[in-house]
Amino acid sequence: MKIKFIPYVLLFPILLYSCSDIEQIEPAEYETFGIRHDRTLTDYEAAITSTTDRPDFGPVVMFSYTIAGKSDEYIGSGTLITPNWILTADHNFYEKEDQKNPVNPADISVYIGNDPNSPEQTLSVEQIFFHPTWIQNNMDFVYANDLCLVKLKTAAKNMTPAQLYTSTEEPIGNKVWYAGFGDYSRLKGQNPDFYSKKHALENVLDRKATGIVTRINGITYNGGLLAFDFDSPSGKSNTLGDNYVGEDEALLGPGSSAATALNLEGATVPGDSGGPLFIKDNGVWKVAGVLSGGVPEPVVGQKDSNYGDISVFIRVSNSKAWISEVIK
């Protein structure tokens, strides 16, 4: 199976630093992909079913489709927010650099369960609702509008949907969780002919930004962003706590970032797009963000999904009115 993923945004950062400000990336022996070099992928897959204090990851689903005339298969992640509706990212289904038209809903399969190679349910899509300004301003997280709603033909069974975090008081510095179906087939011991299983990772919310607006047909839509960086166990890859701020990173706003890596610290990888960022709200884990992509080369020489990577999410609280209007 050949899998091609719709890529993260790739913009060229403006260099706003002096040579002395450049953070040192991890030594080559610490190079990794999405997970800590001293953990296994199994640890992150096991986090999905743990009974400790973490979200219910059951509502996190995977999408799969093939564009007519192409052999590459595209996958993405999303979250059931009602039995009939999934919240995900627009670029999972339309990115004008790669596609002439949005994907036909009839070509999309939705897999429910922790292992998409043996799903508990496989559902069909009735309709896709792109953010109103996405087709016009199609640049991933830059315009904070990479947000999509997917209506299923039939409701998911035996599933408790995730709740949305609608307050604008997202707690910077608090633990967050992410879950998705990113492709780890390049890792040792993984079979490249199978989908990767659902995995979860923990991190600390480092940034939140608001005040990003888009307009169409005389209507203004407010948008915002949330972000975290992938800290290394050595503490040397704290990219949101250094002095190097590229153009895309500057969109995330000012702030600080602790260098301490959590036990299951990680970064998002291709195929995770559209997956949920969970924040605890009065004892309940809720979806506060939808993965749009990553900041390109947040330090000089940094490789995607390695230590120092910065994952960026579309802020749900800024788009709650649009979400409610579509699924009412």
Strand ordering within the main sheet: 8-7-11-12-13-10-9
CATH topology: Thrombin, subunit H
Q: Indicate the radius of gyration in whole angstroms.
A: 18 Å
Number of self-contained structural domains:
1
Give the overall average pLDDT: 89
Order of helices and strands: HEEEEEEEEEEHEEEH
* Residue runs with pLDDT of under 50 for 5 or more positions: 1-24
Describe this structure in words.
The chain is built from 3 helices and 13 strands; from the N terminus they run αββββββββββαβββα. It has 328 residues and is mainly β. It has a single domain, classed as Thrombin, subunit H. Strands 8-7-11-12-13-10-9 form a 7-stranded antiparallel β-sheet. It has a 6-stranded antiparallel β-barrel with strand order 1-2-3-6-5-4. The longest helix has 8 residues, at 320-327. The model is unreliable at 1-24 (pLDDT under 50).
What is this structure's SSE topology?
Layout: H1 41-46, E1 60-66, E2 73-82, E3 85-88, E4 109-112, E5 121-130, E6 148-152, E7 175-180, E8 199-204, E9 207-216, E10 219-229, H2 247-250, E11 276-281, E12 284-294, E13 310-315, H3 320-327
Antiparallel strand pairs: 1-2, 1-4, 2-3, 3-6, 4-5, 5-6, 7-8, 7-11, 9-10, 10-13, 11-12, 12-13
